Amino acid sequence: MRDYLLVCDSTADLPIDVVKELGVKIIPFSYSIADEPFNYYLDERDGDIKNFYDKLRDGAMLVTSQVNPNLYKEYFREVLAQDKDILYMCFTSGLSGSYQSAMLGADMALEKYPDARIEVVDTLSASVGEGVFLYLAAKMKETGKSFDDLLAWVNENRLKVRHWFLVEDLFHLQRGGRLSAVGAIVGSALKIKPILSVDEEGKLVVKAKTRGLGKALDYLLQKTVEEGGDLSSLVAVIGNADAMENAEKLKSMVVEAGMKEENIMIAPIGPIIGAHVGAGMTAIAFIMP
Do 271 and 241 contact (CB within 8 A), yes or no? Predict the structure, then answer.
């Protein structure tokens, strides 16, 4: 039986040391700052995250772009050349056209390796949600789960991934069409912090509006307790867009509620997601039992 490799993309936010331990392949997405192009690798080899958020706060013009089919073809062929099949957990189709590009790239890659297999799964997840999904899938692969069994698990659980996050800068949501200009101005004046999630189509949705950071973090904790089941066995990723203090605070809160500290990972929110949600975003993601 051919071996296979789990592949994902750099919209999946996980600590880089964890990614290295998992042995998964990460395809970089690209972005530009004032027309200067960068590829985002989780190890920050091409532009560091702190510099990105500093420029974002200074009002730099930022643009993100998806991987095109030809690049997907090349990335996939690198793996197929190693005599391995591919299970690609792709960034949500609700926020990007990358899923369709990956499907086209897979078809092109298989023209050279017709006996190989590539399965492209629309995770319907993003950021730390995509990250915790990838983490748990990789842990299952480590136990010897077959390609077909892991593929079935991924498809069966993608709607169980829960994303909850607060946003600091409402103007990024307004620019992305998530809030009206008036709503953004009024919300900022009143220190309103919207709580967002990802729906069953993999799209961002505003779920609540809280006043002040404390109440926003309380809301994230509440949803974790409501949906997380047995917190003592729950695995979660907490993400921060250059807001480590918030992330550490949220971690302390969920540990106090019953989660094990060793089951919580804190990850930076990379530029691909950060460009759309702004600096200060704080998130928690897990898979509902």
Answer: no
Task: Report the sign of the C-alpha dihedral through residues 105, 106, 107, 111, in that order.
Answer: positive
* Contacts of 178 by beta carbon, 8 Å cutoff, 6+ apart: 194, 196, 204, 206
Q: List, for residues 47-93, the tens digit of each pLDDT value.
A: 889 999 999 888 888 888 888 999 999 999 999 999 999 999 999 99
CATH 3.90.850.10, domain 161-287, yes or no: no
- Enumerate the CATH 3.30.1180.10 domain ranges in the chain, comma separated: 161-287
Predicted TM-score (pTM) of the model is: 0.93
β-bridge partners, 240: 268, 282
Query: What top-level class would CATH report for the domain 3-158?
Result: alpha beta
Distance CA 7, CA 45 (A): 19
Question: Which part of the chain is CATH 3.40.50.10170?
Answer: 3-158
